Amino acid sequence: MSQLNADIDHLLRRAGFGASPADAGTFADMSTAAAVAHLVDYEGRPDDVDARIGRSDHAKVVSKDLFAPDIDIDDARQRWLFRMIHTRRPLQEKMAIFWHNHFATAYSKLATDSGTLQAAKMLAHKPGVLRGPQGQLELFRQYALGSYRDLLLQVAQDPAMLVWLDGKSNTKTKPQENFGREVMELFTVGVGHYTEADVYAAARVFTGWNLRRSEGYRREDMNAYQEFVYNADEHEANPKTFSFPIYRNGDRTIPARSESAGMQDGVDLITALAVHPETARRLARKFWNFFVSEVHQPDPVFVEQAAAVYLQNGTEIRPVVRYVLTSPWFINPSMRYARYSWPSEFVARAIKEVGWQGLSLDRVRSPLANMGQLLFEPPNVGGWPLGAGWFSTGAMLARTNFAATLASSQKEFLAVALEPDGQTPQALLAAMLDRVTPAPFDSAPQQALVSYLTAGGAWTGSAAQLNTRAAGLARLLVGSSEYQLV
Amino acid sequence: MRVSRRLFIRDGVATLTLGLAAPPFLSAIAQAQGLPSRRLVVIYLGGGNDALNTLISYQDPQYYSRRPTIAVPAGQVLQVGTDAAGRTLGLHPRLGGLSNIFNEGRLALVQRTGYPNSSRSHFEATDIWGTANPQSSSGSGWLGRYLDTLPRPVDALAAWNTSGETPRALLSGHTGVPAIPNATTYTYASPNRGQAALEERAAAQIMAANPATGRPHLAFVNSTSRAAIETLDRVAQATSYTPSVVYPNNGFGLALRTVAGAIVRGIGSRVFWVQTGGFDTHSQQGAAAGGAYGNLMGTLGDGVLAFYSDIRNQGLANDTTVLVFSEFGRRISENGSGGTDHGAAGLMMAIGGMVRGGVYGTAASLAPGSPSLENNSGDVRYETDFRSVYARVLDQWLGVNSVPILNGDFRAGAPAIF
Predict the structure, then answer these.
(1) Residue from A293, A398, A392 nearest A350 by CA
(2) Is residue A289 a part of any domain in this protein?
């Protein structure tokens, strides 16, 4: 909302999903420092968003049968979108999608392996009703700003990850390398900071990190589940030497251990990778792109400082994000609108700003897929192609077409809400720009918007005119290039 | 009349277009540049295709001993004869479609393609196949640089990407490539109808035309928006095409169907990009015709056969070449999960009415210690530089000089697939 000061507007776009008119009230009298604390120390806000699903003054979820987000992937997608729009802890949901992209795990492979119900459960199960471990998304929400080392260890034992990167069948006779490679290439140090020999050694480290099935497991049973197990019999017990230090004393070799004690190999490697300086820098660069800018290269000073905060705080993410959001780079006005919104960010922000009266989140699913971000379905383990990569012609059309769908669904609502401002086209545009917050327009597009309002004849402010033009205006604003930037 | 190959390449465009009435859907730019008679359809197999189970050295005892649970039994392979080294080879049993094309002499199989010190990272390797530079995985792509050789202004549909994201191979200095993953939703919607909708679209066009001076990232999004609006109507022409065959009802089949529509309708695109994934088979590949890998082969073979048959029925097979590759091959020995890990050299394939079919290059001896292996005999060593195949396609098919595009001369030793 442009009624908020520009710093808080910027903060809410980056550390959240923009501001609804109600959010604008919450943040109106806050200092920027208080707003950062409000977002970062979110434990002070209730985690009550799921309990509000079904309320008539919130966006709707629609399901084929009973709404079952713990075991049905389409329902899980709706629940996640609902959280992005209505959460009181926007940064927690923002980090959840950051980690989802970082540890990119796709539903389709899980479904092929374990069936649709178990696949959805592995990704989205929120404990409470059904038996079994929490789904991967709940892990990301739990550790959203927690210790990265702990998160990495949890991910290495996460059933969805054990299926996704095949750890579940990593055995000692012929270790397989999928997780061992990606844990270094994508989750921690990155290409150039490990060797092929490290990949083979890491594969051996994680031998025996497998899955076991619950008693009487049947994949169609919603109470059945798979969980992590360390199979000592399948662990390869020889020493494993790496090209980088594993221990604080600089030792690069994980010692030979008995099979029964061998699970410690993986804990040692994960800890070493989590505190590796290149992991710290890599996360710092990712945070730069996620929070600060995709237009400007990461400032080396920022990278070193953010990496230092990470290492000094024992891989805790919360101090790092607090550092990022209060850093001179983040608050520099030239960084505003210097990121390309992810489709999920774009959709959640558009709904928050334009409105959700009677809007079914099920209608957002296929537009999101056309924009290139079907939730729980990243294209590969590297995650989505970010930044300019989101903006192919087809994806841009999907965004503008979603703007049309949303504007169409809010037609009557917008006509009523904007009626007091309907005296002149200029007043209507100004009122709409109080709700919907694209990057500033140059004069030519601004003029095109005003001209559009009067293109059908002189402005009278009649109900019919407002009905047509307010929706058309919302479509033009949300579908504009300026709105795709955050 | 038989046209010599040399003459054909130099004068190919003019010769072929003379006898044809120009199709009605070309943009003014495409018209002005002359109807391109030759198209390249690239099929990228994402994830690292297990080349050793695509084209199978089924009489090599090491093939069975190193792949005890995933080897295809000799009796099931679709034989394609022997290669230059006398190794007997066969296609995967689910590649019946490709086998038919091979038997017509229109499928070239180029074995052991790759480059020195092959990257085992999906992303780096994919980018290297895109840049055509093993030393750099960033910068423009080889097909993007080809597009940059076209006279400007370049038609907005000079290339057509059927996947949602732009692959590095198509990244260009000057030419944006539209991504049309789903041609049926490649449309412009409005909350209003009639005149108000038209006025809204006109406003959107003016807004997207804003040069956004000083804000290059905004200018970039505007250019995407403009390209989308400009290509809408022509894309709709391609989707209205009724094919002459039934395509498999999967994403790959439907993408190829759209490509056929664009070709038959004469949209004017020279390069098409199609990709299909799932080739990262670390576990449970399955043996013989069944299993996950068999399904991947079925998708590939059935889709390509439908496309090739359709194009041939339309009399356009001689104007179309399909090039198939993946970012790397896979390890020779299977792992403990019944799959294979990331490897080195792979298999390239070319299909088309002008392709000189056959088996090119030599299969690796899979015996440990063989000079055709590397990485302690874990991987297949490359024999043919993938850039020499690119060079052949650029020089002999697309009719441009490959040397500046590939930043080097890879013409010598290129397999003579055209």
Answers:
(1) A398
(2) yes
Rounded distance, CA A303 to CA A287, Å?
9
**The total number of structural domains that make up chain A:** 1
To the nearest whole angstrom, how far is the Cα of B139 from the nearest Cα of chain A?
14
Fill in the DSSP letter of residue B246: P
Of B197, B213, B231, the CB nearest to A393: B231
Domain region containing A321 = 279-333
Measure A391 CA to nearest chain B CA, in Å.
Answer: 7
Beta strands in B314-418 (DSSP E): 320-326, 346-352, 358-360, 373-374, 379-380, 384-385
In this structure, are residues A278 and A245 in contact, taking their beta carbons and an 8 Å threshold? Answer: no
Predicted confidence (pLDDT) at residue B273 exceeds the cutoff of 80: yes
Distance CA A290, CA A281 (A): 14
Q: Which residues pair with A209 in a beta bridge?
A: A230
What are the b/e assignments for A158-189, b being 16+ CB within 10 Å? bbbbbbbbbbbbbbbebbbbbbbbbbbbbbbb
Q: Which chain A residues are within 8 Å of B208, Cβ to Cβ? A: 481
Closest CA to A305 of A330, A269, A337: A330
Chain B residues with beta carbon closer than 8 angstroms to that of A388: 217, 220
Q: What are phi and psi of B396, to 5 degrees?
A: -95, -20
Is residue B222 a contact partner of residue B208, using CB atoms and an 8 Å limit? yes
Residue A271 lies in a domain: no
Number of structural domains found in chain B: 1
Q: How far is the alpha carbon of B15 from chain A, nearest alpha carbon, in Å? A: 34
Q: Does the structure show a pLDDT above 50 at B2? A: no
Q: Which of B44, B69, B188, B192 to mutate to test the interface with A (most CBs of A within 10 A)?
A: B192
Which tokens sit at B343? 């490897």
Q: Which of A385, A391, A456 sits opposite B199 (nearest CB)?
A: A456
Residue B191, in any domain of the structure = yes
User: Chain A partners of B202 at a C-beta cutoff of 8 Å?
Assistant: 452, 455
Mutation to test the B interface, candidates A390, A481, A483, most B Cβ within 10 Å: A481
Asked whether residue A11 is domain-assigned, the answer is no
DSSP code for A419? G
d(CA B52, CA B55): 6
CB atoms within 10 A of CB B20: 10
Asked whether B278 and A113 are in contact (CB, 8 A), the reply is: no
ipTM: 0.94
**Is B221–A391 a contact, with Cβ atoms under 8 angstroms apart?**
yes
- Point out the residue among B179, B192, B195 whose CB comes nearest to the CB of A392: B179
Residue B405 has pLDDT above 70, yes or no: yes
The list of chain A residues with pLDDT below 50 reads: 1
Does residue B184 sit within a domain? yes
Task: Return d(Cα A57, Cα A24) in angstroms, integer.
Answer: 17
Residue in B176, B217, B337 nearest the CB of A295? B217
A91 or B4, greater pLDDT: A91
User: In chain B, whose CA is at the least distance from the CA of A210?
Assistant: B337
Partners of residue B321 on adjacent β-strands: B40, B352
Region B288-306: mean pLDDT is: 93
pTM of the model: 0.87
Look at residue B215 and tell me if it is in a domain: yes
Domain that holds residue B285: 5-406
- Specify whether the CB–CB gap between B175 and B141 falls below 8 A: no
Inter-chain contact B188–A174, Cβ cutoff 8 Å? no
pLDDT number for residue B172: 84
How close A394 gets to chain B, by Cα (Å)?
A: 5
Residues in chain B closer than 8 A to A380 (CB atoms)? 46-47, 122, 277, 280
Q: Look at residue B413 in the predicted model and tell me its pLDDT.
A: 86
The verdict on residue B387 lying in a domain is yes
Is residue A329, in this structure, part of any structural domain at all? yes
CB–CB contact B180 A394 (8 Å): yes
